[in-house]
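Journal club side-thread
Mid-discussion, someone asked how the predicted structure for our own chain would compare to the paper's figures. Pasting it here so we can look after the session.
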Amino acid sequence: MRKQPRVLTVAESYEHNYLQSELEQTQNALESAYSVFQNVTDPDLIDSSIYEINAIQIRYKFLLEKAKRSGFRVKP
């Protein structure tokens, strides 16, 4: 017998939507940062792009861990 999914409270639903939105925005920012990295030639801009990519990856990891702790499934 299938287990019925738990109904989310309003606060949980809001948090889930917020996390999903933040993850999508972070994915878009990461794609943009990779695009910049691939198109710059100045050594300072390359370094800057690397730092930006690393920062965005850390934010993405944080958001994924927060979603996991909250028990939310994240859309791929």
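Post-session note: The helical segments are 10-39, 43-70.
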